[in-house]
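Entry for the shared binder. Reason: the reviewer on the internal report wants the predicted structure included alongside the sequence.
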Amino acid sequence: MIREGENYQRLKPVHTELNNIKFKKQREKFETSHDAELRLFYAARRILKEKLDGKPIALKAWKQEYAQLKTEYAELSPQHKPLREEVIRLRQVQNAVDTALRRWEQPQEVQRKKHEMEL
């Protein structure tokens, strides 16, 4: 959102300049020379419109919130590292148990199918 807001604000003058051109040939020439910038502007405008639902762009507030969340993440990340490692170990155990159960159930299912065919 921050990047799209920055693109929108940075490229808004280019879009305004395009809208001020009234003659078709001059407008087309301007569009071709600023094609990449206009594409970025239109993409940013579309994304912001979808996400904000008509609310104003608050770049400064977004940057402050991002900085705050980044510092909170840096503080909390070391606390969660042991938990992540434990989850990885538990998933490995779960995979081993699932594999063992599949190997154990396959022969029983083959025997059941043979028995059903005999009947």
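Summary line for the report: The two ends are 66 Å apart (CA to CA).
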